[in-house]
Specification:
Order of helices and strands: EEEHEEEHEHEHEHHEEEHEHEHH
CATH topology: TIM Barrel
Pathway: Pyrimidine metabolism; UMP biosynthesis via de novo pathway
InterPro entries: Aldolase_TIM, DHO_dehydrogenase, Dihydro_DH_chainA_dom2, Dihydroorotate_DH_1_2, Dihydroorotate_DH_cat
Radius of gyration: 19 Å
Keywords: Flavoprotein, FMN, Oxidoreductase, Pyrimidine biosynthesis
Bound molecules: flavin mononucleotide
Strand order of the largest sheet: 3-14-13-10-9-8-7-4
GO molecular function, one term: dihydroorotate dehydrogenase activity
Strand content: 15-25%
Number of strands: 14
Pfam family, one: DHO_dh
Number of helices: 10
CATH architecture: Alpha-Beta Barrel
Length: about 350
């Protein structure tokens, strides 16, 4: 079992936020799988995101990779809150609870605050703030590469500070609220340092003993990484069925450009996990020592999950394999030893 602030994740294998964690049926299957230790929901906004046929996904013919052009979930946060409430409701003979990580995003601090408060209202209703372990956490998605004219905020870290300040203030009111950040794949060291420096400005100075319990830092985890944007695959490289009803396109996704994931992302995702793990261990960053890393990107086999752990992840997640295999993905990655 892995403990991240107030979350207990057992086994330490989860789905990452994605289009296959979008509706109640998908979330129920993920929740009921004995191979997942937590369920991450697709990124929700306050009002819902308008999807059109250009938002889609394709898999590659060789290796287990994907390219997608999706934005955020068409379902509003309120919808996820009602589904999560339904799934967490105790029922006779039901499996023990596992936590939900609610992926949310906004560019507007006021809207983000409303979203966090809505989540906190549900946690209060469920007695989650006072429970021994929490069933609801927040992951702020800072890294969707597919929103026209809105670059992933994680790449311009100082621009995120107003949003992160909202999270800091809400965490200060209730430290049982577990908050993480979904980060984009970074490609050079200064980008990692910008995250570390930015987060440090939001932490209280304090001794490293209490830092390890997230007492001084509002953030409990980094999920590394999201897809690599501005990628391109041609139609003949993908397995998208010709009869999918979409207009003929020379590209794997109609937008041409999209976010690549799966095997094609693995080396970069490992490098991101490794770099953050090293930086978080540095004595100068002691106040951040309570931050755990959820390793995501090309986890398509047990060996890949093991590599993520060797690189520094305490929990491992996947999306592309889930899209290809359904919840059986977690059996493939976790194997017998992964079962609770
Ligand atoms: C079809 C699809 C939809 C995704 N949607 C989201 C999303 O809504 N929010 C998010 O934070 N990440 C999203 N992701 C990124 C995944 O969570 C993950 O970070 C990325 O795909 C790398 O993991 P993988 O190699 O296991 O696919 C999506 C990925 C895919 C393939």
């Amino acid at each position: 079992m892995v403990k991240i602030n107030t979350l207990n994740i057992s086994p330490p294998l989860i789905n990452s936020s994605c289009a296959w964690a979008s509706d109640l049926e998908q979330l129920t299957a993920l929740y009921e799988s004995s191979f997942t230790g937590a369920v991450t929901t697709r990124t929700a906004t306050l009002e819902g995101f308008q999807e059109n046929p250009s938002h889609t996904v394709a898999f590659t013919k060789s290796a287990v990779s994907s390219i997608n052009s999706y934005g955020y979930s068409p379902h509003r946060l309120a919808q996820y809150l009602s589904w999560v409430k339904e799934l967490l409701k105790p029922s006779p003979g039901a499996q023990p609870k596992k936590p939900f990580i609610l992926s949310i995003t906004s560019y507007d601090p006021a809207k983000l605050r409303t979203m966090v408060q809505d989540i906190q209202d549900l946690r209060a209703e469920l007695g989650d703030s006072t429970a021994q372990s929490s069933s609801i956490a927040i992951e702020l998605n800072t890294s969707c590469p597919n929103i026209p004219s809105s670059p992933p905020t994680g790449y311009v870290f100082p621009s995120l500070i107003p949003l992160l300040t909202v999270l800091k203030e809400e965490h200060a009111k209730d430290s049982s609220l577990t908050i993480g950040l979904k980060l984009p794949p970074f490609v050079y060291r200064d980008q990692f340092l910008a995250v570390i420096d930015g987060i440090k400005t939001l932490c209280l100075p304090g001794d490293s003993d209490s830092a390890s319990s997230n007492a001084n830092c509002p953030f409990a985890f980094f999920t590394c990484t999201n897809t690599l944007g501005n990628s391109l695959l041609f139609d003949e490289q993908s397995t998208r069925p010709a009869s999918s009803g979409e207009e003929a396109s020379p590209f794997a996704v109609p937008t041409g450009l999209g976010g690549v994931a799966g095997d094609a992302l693995h080396a970069l995702a490992l490098g991101n996990v490794y770099t953050f793990a090293q930086l978080l261990r540095e004595p100068a960053n002691a106040v951040l020592q309570g931050i755990s890393i959820i390793g995501v990107g090309g986890v398509t086999s047990k060996a890949a999950a093991d590599r993520m752990r060797r690189a520094g992840a305490v929990v491992v997640g996947c999306a592309t394999l889930l899209g290809k295999e359904g919840v059986r993905a977690f059996e493939i990655i976790g194997g017998e030893e992964g079962q609770k």
